[in-house]
Amino acid sequence: xxxxxxxxxxxxxxxxxxxxxxxxxxxxxxxxxxxxxxxxxxxxxxxxxxxxxxxxxxxxxxxxxxxxxxxxxxxxxxxxxxxxxxxxxxxxxxxxxxxxxxxxxxxxxxxxxxxxxxxxxxxxxxxxxxxxxxxxxxxxxxxxxxxxxxxxxxxxxxxxxxxxxxxxxxxxxxxxxxxxxxxxxxxxxxxxxxxxxxxxxxxxxxxxxxxxxxxxxxxxxxxxxxxxxxxxxxxxxxxxxxxxxxxxxxxxxxxxxxxxxxxxxxxxxxxxxxxxxxxxxxxxxxxxxxxxxxxxxxxxxxxxxxxxxxxxxxxxxxxxxxxxxxxx
Length: 328
What we know:
By secondary structure, this protein is α/β, with parallel strands linked by helices. Helices cover 33% and strands 30% of the residues. It has eleven helices and 16 strands. It has helices at 61-68, 91-94, 112-122, 127-140, 156-167, 186-201, 213-219, 237-241, 257-264, 286-299, 314-322, and strands at 5-10, 13-18, 21-32, 35-46, 50-54, 76-81, 84-85, 97-100, 174-178, 205-209, 222-227, 230-236, 246-251, 269-274, 278-283, 306-310. The strands form four sheets. It has a six-stranded mixed sheet, sandwiched between helices. Strands 4-3-6-7 form a four-stranded antiparallel sheet, with helices on one face. Strands 14-15-13-16 form a four-stranded antiparallel sheet, covered by helices on one side. A hairpin with a 3-residue loop joins strand 14 and strand 15 (278-283). Helix 3 crosses helix 4 (127-140) and helix 5 packs parallel to helix 6 (186-201). The relative contact order is 0.14.
């Protein structure tokens, strides 16, 4: 069950007060020599959330994920998981975290089943618990029929699915997914999506990073955006989308001057651009505006020849906030 939360609006950010936070990042700063990778990042993730993390290359995402996994210590600040401070020496706490890195973490000479058994034994799972868990995971990620095949012979998508199964073999409370669909085919991508949703529905907290905006927009109700080591936005998806306006492109047989004046004063319209036979309206309330737009056209006995909506997307918001292409 997702944690209850209360949000206090701020410019491009929300101060989120969690009733049951599983992860608290407090003023994390990390440097590589004179290069600042993270500069005062703070965020909170509630137990049971599916939380998105975005940023252009070099924004600090990989460094942050490494710190959240307990693989390296921050230069300054702290990370708290389930109310305990995380460090590289906190083995018991680190075992409550799972991570699937962008670089595959599996042994190509071992079979799919052997990989899962090996990693499960590293977490000291009892054989009576581990073996049925392995079979369930193989079935869930669609690899039961390839269980005895060496992982090195797998396609990219199959390796990604096995990598994800390895990340949760020990049943963690917090799962970190760093680019989990890189280089996979559409079928494997759908398998991964459904598995992530299934894990989250069962109560697992997931932090999901991806270069594919549509993935994060589809999966994650709340999203943070990093840029140049700073947290520049952290909000629910609907609130982030409100940072960009909808464009309505309307083609007409003609555009009377009176119609333009009428449209300019409609509630929610922020800009009207007109040509010989087309009008583009910028609006914050497309759903409420469309009936009024139709009524205005009827008053002038005009029937639109086409109407297109350019709705806000997470990619548009990302580019608006960062000013970067995603793959700089």
